[in-house]
């Protein structure tokens, strides 16, 4: 089955009829259906899939003549809430299609080639981005992860069990992985502006998520004078504006995209506003300076509003520089540009674990991502498949 047929098979899974966006939450029905689809596609190619105790998957193409550490490719199948079709699945479908392409060329790998799928890459359910790859590499422990809760208060350990998985059976081993290559739709317009279909990654900006808890006093919206209020919503509102200003002044990124309000009543002054800051910057120092500046302004405003603020770092990833020699070597295969990305990826986690890593990007004509409007032209996707096959052949000769 070719790329376009596989893509049509995936299109309905987890898609909202109302928005056209995707709700492929980890350890829920849509994502479980996709994991089963992946196993079926691998079986059709004679690849045996290993699924670990939390749902990470890997399948190897390993002829008898293949020796040494393998080349792993792949991505993820989960999505953000109301997300796009391409973020994650494009890398998985392209990996399967690249194996077909290499076999069609008569290529016989000297090193094993694997296709992997990591769970909870987005962190949209349990708040920890790239959780599957973090657990596999040891960057996060299961004892820590099992206590994470989703928005409904469900523990991660319970969600995994309900999905029919058993963490006690162990996690994937990356001991035999020599190189990792992740294909991904570009989350920006760099390739579009360059008028090229494919590029490679040079680095991932440092980024993280911080929880801001603004505590005040619940009160009546009608009878409480404005000067008598201790309203945490005001403190949050100023903080969101401060984050926007700090990011714009420094040429960085800062977003409050999620909030929770208690008691969440129309006619009540809130008692608590919890908001999550997503911040990204061109260097580790720049990221720390921006988050500190936002925090200081928020604390100053809390003092004026009579509210209290607690800031908690929930998930922070340092800058990742991909192997420059590997990127240069692969870029020469197609005269592809090497560009930076501001989005986090499993590739960054594996690179931090010491595995030589590269990323292949496919052009996104709108630059929109994490949205139903995310898009890539079929012709560019097919070019990406060919590019990935070229890269894998180069690494597995």
Automatic annotation (TrEMBL):
Signal peptide: none
Classification via Pfam families: Peptidase_M20 (PF01546)
Keywords assigned by UniProt, alphabetized: Hydrolase
Protein family (similarity comment): Belongs to the peptidase M20 family.
Name this protein carries in UniProt: Allantoate amidohydrolase
């Amino acid at each position: 089955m070719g790329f376009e047929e596989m893509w049509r098979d995936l299109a309905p899974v987890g898609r909202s009829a109302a928005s056209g966006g995707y709700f492929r939450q980890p350890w829920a029905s849509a994502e479980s259906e996709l994991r089963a689809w992946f196993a079926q596609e691998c079986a059709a190619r004679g690849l045996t899939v290993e699924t670990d105790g939390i749902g990470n998957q890997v399948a190897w193409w390993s002829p008898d003549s293949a020796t040494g550490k393998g080349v792993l490719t792949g991505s993820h199948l989960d999505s953000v809430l109301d997300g796009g079709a391409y973020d994650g699945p494009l890398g998985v479908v392209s990996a399967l299609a690249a194996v077909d392409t290499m076999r069609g060329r008569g290529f016989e790998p000297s090193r094993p080639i694997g296709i992997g799928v990591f769970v909870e890459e987005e962190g949209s359910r349990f708040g920890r981005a790239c959780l599957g790859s973090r657990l596999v590499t040891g960057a996060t422990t299961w004892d820590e992860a099992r206590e994470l809760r989703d928005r409904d208060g469900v523990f991660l350990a319970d969600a995994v069990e309900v999905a029919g998985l058993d963490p006690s059976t162990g996690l994937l081993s990356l001991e035999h992985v020599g190189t990792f290559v992740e294909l991904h739709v570009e989350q920006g317009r760099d390739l579009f502006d360059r008028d090229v279909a494919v590029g490679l990654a040079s680095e991932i900006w440092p980024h993280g998520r911080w929880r801001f808890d603004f505590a005040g006093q619940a009160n009546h919206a009608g009878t409480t004078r404005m000067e008598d209020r201790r309203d945490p919503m005001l403190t949050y509102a100023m903080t969101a504006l401060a984050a926007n200003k700090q990011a714009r002044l420094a040429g960085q990124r800062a977003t409050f995209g999620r909030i929770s309000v208690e008691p969440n009543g129309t006619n009540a002054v809130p008692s608590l506003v919890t908001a999550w800051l997503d911040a990204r910057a061109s260097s580790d120092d720049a990221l720390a300076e921006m988050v500190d500046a936002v925090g200081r302004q928020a604390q100053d405003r809390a003092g004026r509003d009579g509210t209290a603020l607690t800031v908690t770092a929930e998930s922070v990833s340092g800058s990742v520089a991909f192997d420059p020699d590997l990127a240069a070597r692969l870029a020469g295969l197609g005269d592809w540009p090497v560009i930076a990305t501001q989005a986090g990826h499993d590739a960054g986690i594996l690179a931090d674990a010491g595995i030589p890593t590269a990323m292949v990007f496919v052009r996104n004509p709108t630059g929109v991502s994490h949205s139903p409007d995310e898009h890539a032209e079929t012709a560019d996707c097919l070019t990406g498949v060919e590019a990935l096959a070229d890269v894998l052949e180069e690494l597995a000769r």
